[in-house]
Design goal:
Layout (H helix, E strand, L loop, with lengths): L1 H19 L3 H13 L1 H20 L8 H24 L2 H21 L8 H19 L3 H11 L3 H23 L6 H21 L5 H27 L4
Helix pairs in contact: 1-2, 1-9, 2-3, 2-5, 2-10, 3-6, 3-8, 4-6, 4-8, 5-7, 5-10, 6-7, 6-8, 7-8
Amino acid sequence: MAEIWLTGIVLLGGCVQWLTGMGFALVAVPALVLLLGPADGVVLANCAAGAVSVVGLAGGWRRVRPAAMVPLCLAAACTVPAGAWMTHQLPRPVLLLVMGALVTVAVLLVLRGARVPALRGGKGAVTAGALGGFMNAAAGVGGPPVSLYALNAGWTVREFVPNAQFYGVVVNAFSVAANGTPRLTGAQWAAVCAAMTTGAVIGHAIAGRIPEHRARQLVLTLALAGGATAMTKGLWGMWPGR
């Protein structure tokens, strides 16, 4: 049964990632954390999101902006260990609450398209990278701060996607190095690989049939629901007598 749920979660995450260019971690992390536990759920999301970013970057690496990405990635490298430490130290209910809250806040900020002066220029790149690195290692969701940085920098979607994928490759590699690899069986790894491949095929097939703004709304709605569920689960676990 666990393999069936795991397959469904990863397939959905892979599908929306290839459908919209974003969203694997936002959609998959809350469900993976509930299914596998905080530590394994986060690091599996790191592995899968990193693999998706590698494939996506293959065709767009020439559009990567080193001047912006270097401070982002260096800042992320400095904060990933703190996020990894938190994942391994806090009790499970507290981690569920924190992860759910991080996902929920990140989604709400992206939905609002928040303009944040602190996320502009070189200092903004460092701030976004540091927040993204911590959130990626702690909750498997490092993309929203970079999305907000790109929004405040006035990047187009064409400019944002390859740079976000480059950041995803680097920050997920740091996160896996800090957190280790997920403790999955051979059958579970096979299910994950098959689901990612199938999700990519489905996402490509339906990408032209669903308006981008509707697909984006779907991703953020699913992520918001997952974040709220994780927070609820964490609060329930912290309730006296549980």
